[in-house]
Known about the structure:
Elements: H1 15-45, H2 52-69, E1 80-85, E2 88-94, H3 106-122, H4 130-137, E3 145-148, E4 151-154, E5 159-160
Antiparallel strand pairs: 1-2, 3-4, 4-5
Amino acid sequence: MLRLLDLPDYTFETWHIVVGVILGIVGAILTLVYGLMRKGLNRLVLPLNRMPIVRNTLGGLLLGLLGMALPLTLFLGSGGLVVVNNGQVQAKLALPVAGLMCAAPLEQVVVWEKEVNQAAHDLGATLDHPFMALSFIALPVIPKLKLTDQGLVDVESFTHVPLFL
């Protein structure tokens, strides 16, 4: 069992109530500020709905400025597969391009992928390609179909879907 519902030991103290009330008030104030900012931003952007070319141009300009200001945070330097055991990295496969791709030669990427899968198997993973299954679990663009290590699966009827008709 995963023991997800085990709660840590807790000792009640009176000051916890005071802190809870203060945090609740701060949360309510931040919610109000967020709502006012969103309302103001909507009022500012509303005239652009009648001018889609201007709206899209400004959106691209802002995204470009963000990319110039924060180049490594926009589609680079994030993503990858890592197997960790007791704080020690057992194997890794960096995917620095959009968190999906690697610029290394295909042969090297295949070696790294095999190392990552083997490290996962050494820790008890039973799927042939555990990271492939994890990569498609939360893919929002495929709400009905999921690609698993067993093939393409219709998750509503729990049946395999043929890849070729």
